[in-house]
Amino acid sequence: MKILFITFEQSGRQIVKSILDDNYFKINKKQIFTFGMNESYLEFNDLTNINITSIMGFVDIVSNLKYLFNLRLKIKEIVDLHLFTHIFFVDSFDFSKFYLQKFKSNKIKYCQIVGPSVFIWKSSKAKFINRNFDKIFSIFSIEKSYYNSNIYNYIGHPLKNKTYYSNDYNEINNIGIFLGSRQQEIYKNIPIIKKLLLNLKKYKDLVFNFFVTTEYREIIENYFKDNSNIQIHLNDNSYYKKISKLDFAFACSGTVHLELCFSNIPHLIFYKANIINYYIFKLFVRSKYLSLVNIFNKKEIIKEFIQSDFTDTNLLDFFTILKLNKDKLYNYRKNMFDGTKRCNFENFRSSIITDYLEKFS
């Protein structure tokens, strides 16, 4: 047995880490390989032979077609060379589909970890998984009805096991800033967040904590070098403990939203997409919200500032209300806690994946 884990996003890398922390993989280390982990987790043999580019949205896909075809070919070459018995695609389902449509082999077992959120997208993606994958390991129990019972497994959410719960109900002093994990997100978000921080200078007690990956550290340090109240933190082993110490956060919509919910940190989320991507997204998505907590509760619990609503003025106005009114801050945090609890997220169980693999040992 020889296993390959493929991932392209920071959130996917975190999930791969959660899986490979299981003793089963450490014992069978020589049979375990990764693609896309770069320097973030090199305990296992990483076979990345191309610079990984984070892609999101129709416009990015079209402008990066040459890269995507090259990436697919590079993975096929690696698969042929190493004769893998199992391939796990982690998140990024659209690439999984793109690969299997061209290079599917009857000699390999294909698994998808993290489905394509079929509960808000059209269900055709689930139909492709039912026809082409041996297993779907889902982090959302709501997806069960979309998949064939013989391939579906619910494994819980990896972040539930990693985050640290905060009981503090202090006033707001320690602020988290999360600009996103993709280059295009960071460059779109920086100017608005810089204006926001300039307006927040009047609060002398605030400390702003930027959480960044290594490749964007220098960009953010240079952009905010004039602000003495800024601290830069890398997404290292102390990441989850650090975010549990925050009093509030401004976060680009993404995985960090659930990290903050599981840590019980009040926050708002923002997002501004390319206008073409946004309207394509609205055509296919069956929800008016981006936050999973809002989607599952069918109402806005976590405040969202999307597209034209994402302005420094709107963020400042909402934050000021919570900063100056402890009762409203308490209620906002309590509603977030109750809303997250109603989503019924469960702890991650890597044993479900290892039990599946042990059948082939």
Structure description:
The strands form 2 sheets. The protein has a 7-stranded parallel beta sheet. Strands 10-9-8-11-12-13 form a 6-stranded parallel beta sheet, sandwiched between helices. It has 2 domains: about 5-155 and about 345-360, Glycogen Phosphorylase B (Rossmann fold); about 175-340, Glycogen Phosphorylase B (Rossmann fold, 3-Layer(aba) Sandwich). Helix 8 packs across helix 14 (about 310-325) and helix 14 crosses helix 15 (about 325-340). It is of the alpha/beta class. The mean pLDDT is about 90. It is globular. It has helices spanning about 10-20, 25, 60-65, 65-80, 95-105, 125-130, 160, 185-200, 215-225, 240-245, 255-260, 275-285, 290-295, 310-325, 325-340, 350-360, and strands at about 5, 30-35, 45, 85-90, 110-115, 135-140, 150-155, 175-180, 205-210, 230-235, 250, 265-270, 305.
Task: Note the topology.
Elements: E1 3-6, H1 10-20, H2 23-27, E2 32-35, E3 45-46, H3 58-63, H4 65-82, E4 86-90, H5 93-103, E5 109-113, H6 124-132, E6 135-138, E7 152-154, H7 158-162, E8 174-178, H8 183-199, E9 207-212, H9 217-223, E10 230-234, H10 239-243, E11 248-252, H11 255-262, E12 267-271, H12 275-284, H13 292-297, E13 304-306, H14 312-324, H15 326-342, H16 351-358
Parallel strand pairs: 1-2, 1-4, 2-3, 4-5, 5-6, 6-7, 8-9, 8-11, 9-10, 11-12, 12-13
Helix pairs in contact: 8-14, 14-15
Low-confidence stretches: none
Shape: globular
> How much of the sequence is in beta strands?
15-25%
Largest sheet, order of strands side by side?
3-2-1-4-5-6-7
CATH top level assignment of the largest domain = Alpha Beta
* CATH-assigned homologous superfamily of the largest domain: Glycogen Phosphorylase B
Label the structural class.
alpha/beta
Number of strands: 13
CATH topology grouping of the largest domain: Rossmann fold
Rounded to an integer in angstroms, the radius of gyration calculated over CA atoms is 21 Å
Number of separate structural domains: 2
Name the average pLDDT.
89
